[in-house]
Amino acid sequence: MTPGFWKNRRVLVTGHTGFKGAWLCMWLTQMGAKVSGLSKPAEGDPNLWNLLNLTDVKHYVGDVSDLMDVENVLAREQPQIVLHLAAQALVRRSYKTPLETFSTNVMGVVALLDAITRSDSVHACVIVTSDKCYQNKENNVAFKETDPMGGDDPYSGSKGAAELATSSMRHSFFASHTKDGHRCNVASARAGNVIGGGDWSEDRLIPDIIRGCLGPDQAALIRSPKSVRPWQHVLEPLHGYLLLAEKLCVDGATFAQGWNFGPTSGDERPVIDVADAIVKALGKGCIEIAQNQPDLHEAKLLTLDSTKAKKLGWSAKLDFATTVEMTASWYGDWAVGGDPASLCREQIKQYLKVCGAEI
Question: Which residue in 313, 329, 218, 354 sits closest to 278, CA to CA?
């Protein structure tokens, strides 16, 4: 990644009020990008977006599946790059709100790409989906980008459908794949389970552990302790998204396709290992296993093959132990009064040092 490339670059981040979106906006503003964001209001209290107080980011409240909302922001901000993170991002919530999940995760992609076809400014667009976009038969094989899309729960199905929507829109309306199409190069990014400081989402492993261990009872209740996931620090896939966007602008249509961004092979871990490691790093709390859980399908085994991402110059840099330590230390420092923005800036600096780069 070339920090100078991003200086004064006009970037629209959808879903900027979410966990990953807030981290991404912080990183972009540090590199001097001119950032705008379109999202529904930030959820929960606390939430990272409000804590960071990124006054340099132009904040638009709207629905990414509403074509008029999207067109309004594109017209006003004239972004050169769009990083699409807006989503209903929770598996278990998708069972309660399937209509919202499919509307946001699928029609949000269609509305955005449709609006971009009428924008003269956008050169590159990265559609962020999920590692759960793949048809998962849980046969202990890491998914490659050429594997079929699928999903047996509403969230996974919506992400598989989002990938199909991205592919069909790209082949129908963009010059990378069709004659006389729009010049914007469109790629999709599929990342694993991300963890890191500042995530307080409902019904998600790390926030549940932090709330429990730092709460009055100092006990965290978890479910599905044996489920295996490709855990990675939030900065890892964000680095991939930024590299991919830069490649789309500089090297063009060659990179207008789907990309996996997962941890190093062997760093996948069951839920209980992550929970125990966070508690150990925090130095307080204990883990309890939930009993009589709702019978909702959620894949038990999921791994990614990210070999292809080496073509972007990307590979996972943080091992499991470092990922857990950075996550736990962020929450630990915040709990005793640490400034969230300073904590994020310091960890971005720490990550770039591991990568052999500086802002």
Answer: 329
